[in-house]
Each structure stands twice: as C-alpha cells, then as structure tokens.
Amino acid sequence: MGINDRKIVNADRKCPEILHPDRIEAESFRIIEKEIGEMGRTVPARYASVIKRVIHTTADFSYLDSLYFSETVIDQAITALKEGCCVVTDTNMAKAGIHKSSLEKLGGEVLCYMAEEEVARSAKERGITRAQVSMEKSAETGKDYIYVIGNAPTALLRIVELAEAGRLCPRFVVGAPVGFVNVVEAKERLMASSIPCIVPRGRKGGSNVAAAIFNALLYDVAGR
Amino acid sequence: MGINDRKIVNADRKCPEILHPDRIEAESFRIIEKEIGEMGRTVPARYASVIKRVIHTTADFSYLDSLYFSETVIDQAITALKEGCCVVTDTNMAKAGIHKSSLEKLGGEVLCYMAEEEVARSAKERGITRAQVSMEKSAETGKDYIYVIGNAPTALLRIVELAEAGRLCPRFVVGAPVGFVNVVEAKERLMASSIPCIVPRGRKGGSNVAAAIFNALLYDVAGR
C-alpha cells in the first residue's frame, strides 16, 4: 500500500493503525516477551511480572540485569498486600503512579508526606531532606508500612537506619531512587540489610519504575 | 579509613556522607557535565538545560542522542510560558511531576482530564482511549495550551489530527510517550507536523521524562 492509499484510508477511518485500548497493553507485553526471547534470555517466573512491567514502563531492557530481589520479598509482599497494608512513598509522582483502585480493593492506601508544610519546615530547620523527615514521620505512627521510594536516596538510608534502630519495621521496600549522588550507596546499604526489598541496582530508577514494581505485585494479588 | 572506623564515625554523626539537600542537585549536574565531557560530547547551549535535566531524571545518557527539538520550539516555549499559558497532560503522574509553584508564578496551571468519569465513559462507549477523549476535551475549550504527553501515543496522534483539522493550536508539545505499540509512529507523526515540539525519539520516554523536559524550560523562565 503506497503512501497515498494510506492517506485515503486515514481520511475514511480515523487512526486505523490504533489497537483497541484493552489490547494495547497485552500487545506491549507480547513484544517484550518476544524480544527477551530473541536476546536469548529468560526471566524467572517468580519475578517475571515485575521485570516485564518495569521494561513496559521504561522501554529499557537493561532492567533485565539490574533488578535485585531479596530472598523472600515476593512472599512477604503478597502477604502484606493481602492484609491491606498501607504504602508510604517519597514522591507524589510515585503516589500518582500507584493503581489506587486495586490497592483499595485490598484495603490499602498510599501516604506521601512530602508536600506537608510541617515536613518542609522541619527539614529546613535541621538541614536534612524532606524525604528523611517523611520517613521519620511514618515511623512515629507506630504502624508497619510498605515503602515505595522512587526519588530520594536519603529516604532509603533513613528507612534502614530507623529499621536497624528498631523504630520501624518495613513490610517490604521498593528501593528505586534514580541519580548520581548517594543513590548507588543507598541501594547497596538497603540490599545489605535484612529488609525485604526490590531494587534496580545502579543509578537508574525513578518514581515511574518504583510505581511499576509495586503495581506489578499489586496486580498479581488484586487484579486491575 | 577501615570499615570499623567508618562505623564509629557513623554512630557519632548521622549520615556523614549525605550532602546538604541544596547541594545534591548541583552536584548531580556537575557529575552529568563531567561525564558528558569524558564521553567527548558537548550539548548545544540552547538545549543544554533540557538534555541535562532528562539525564538527571533518568540516569540514562542515551537521551544525549535521542532528544529532538523542532526548529523554533525553545523560543515558542519561552513565549508561551511567559504568557502564563496552561498545560494539558495525559497522565496524573506527569501532572504530579510538574513544578506547580514555578508555573503558578507565571500564571499557568496544569490540567489533566484522565481521571474524570465523563472521559472514561466516553472512551469506553467509543472504544478509544481516555487520552484521545482528553485531547478532544482540551480542544473544546477553545484555548491554546502547552501539551505535556508522557504516556499515550494516542494522545499525540489526536493532537496532530485536531491541529491539522484546525480544532486546536498547541503552543508546543512535549511528546514523550514510552512503549512498544504505536509510540515510535506517533512521535514520527508529531515530528513531521508543523507543531513546535520536543521529542525523545524511539521507544523511551515516560511521565518523568515529559515532566523533566517541561520543568527544565519552566526553571529557565521562572526559576524555582
């Protein structure tokens, strides 16, 4: 079909190349699986939904090699989600990316303290990050949360410190800050701790990656 | 200094390795500039703030090669921002990532129709995406917007169709959907149009990348 024929088709039917919305995601995952196969790679079944969803979110196949799962994290994540455990994030972007209606089906909700005035004031006074203050605030509630960290390495470090001091007990941590300063070190410290965690090793990550990791587990448990 | 000495220092002073928050971003950009230099690369001054902020957001230097800027887009973006032009996004994650207080200084705000019930109902009835309906809704207001697209290729295609039909006139478009289905084609179609745009070519992009591109321009005009 030549370009001109195509134009006529376009004029007649709007966007003939567009799949029905329900089929777009399934087709994306089919392509991802096909390309992983073409690379001669396989993904462990236990981690497949997380790994493929991160690639779906980023179009970056380097996550095939960088995603770290602590030994029992999948079981612990499933248990926490089924119990309706709430989620603390370090960015409103990660909060926006988490599929709230699936989480609500299980009784959970997402908390993010980053934009609170009190958090900003305390961080400024103490010369620390709002993320650090936010993690302390979550510890003060005395509840056990799931942590989805997509931005601040300082949040990860504070979680580990607070956990090691017995001041909080994370059900599991998605440790996916991105960047160039303290990021690799913070992830290494989390992975060296006894906290159940999923971590894209190295510099890469971000709120979108953090939300994708969490949503993959959430969909496995609650559906969409 | 051995590991044990380090532990003692750590016990005494919390997180001695953590920079003051105000310095973390500056240090990140210094590292990015240094590594670009080590790669024997330079970035055009006109595009430097956008390119470096995308790398800062993703830790992915492949954006050095993939970011496309239409000829007059920087001037048109600066003009639109200075005039307090409002922004339409295709995801609440991109909306969450845009630095609202800087935008408000200029008189702008961010609109996202994706979560509206009416949009969902119309999309379902018509078998199209909510992103397509959202772009139509923006056209119906009769106003000219900046578009920040971080997820849906169908949003980009509808923007181009509506613009070519004279039903909307984007001030500029950040065209950064991510993924495997229709994404490359939608970006190519936007770049082939006369709409001023910034596009990460290929499959990569995302709400975080879209927000980073927009925020870089925003900070250039309004500061933080």
Features:
homodimer, 224 residues, alpha/beta, 6-stranded mixed beta sheet, 6 strands, globular, disordered N terminus
Provide a compact summary of the structure.
With 224 residues, chain A is of the alpha/beta class.
Structural summary, described in words:
The first copy, chain A, has 224 residues and is α/β, with parallel strands linked by helices. The first copy, chain A, is 55% helix and 9% strand. Chain A contains 12 helices and 6 strands. In chain A, helix 10 (153-164) links the parallel strand 4 and strand 5 (172-175). Chain A is globular.
How helical, in percent, are the residues of chain A? 55-70%
Element string of chain A (H = helix, E = strand): HHHHEHEHHEHHEHEHEH
Weakly predicted, low-confidence segments of chain A = 1-16
Number of strands of chain A: 6
Mean pLDDT of chain A: 92
Fraction of residues in β-strands of chain A: 5-15%
Ends apart, CA distance between termini of chain A: 39 Å
The count of helical stretches of chain A stands at 12
**Assembly type:** homodimer
- Strands of the biggest beta sheet of chain A: in what spatial order? 1-6-5-4-2-3
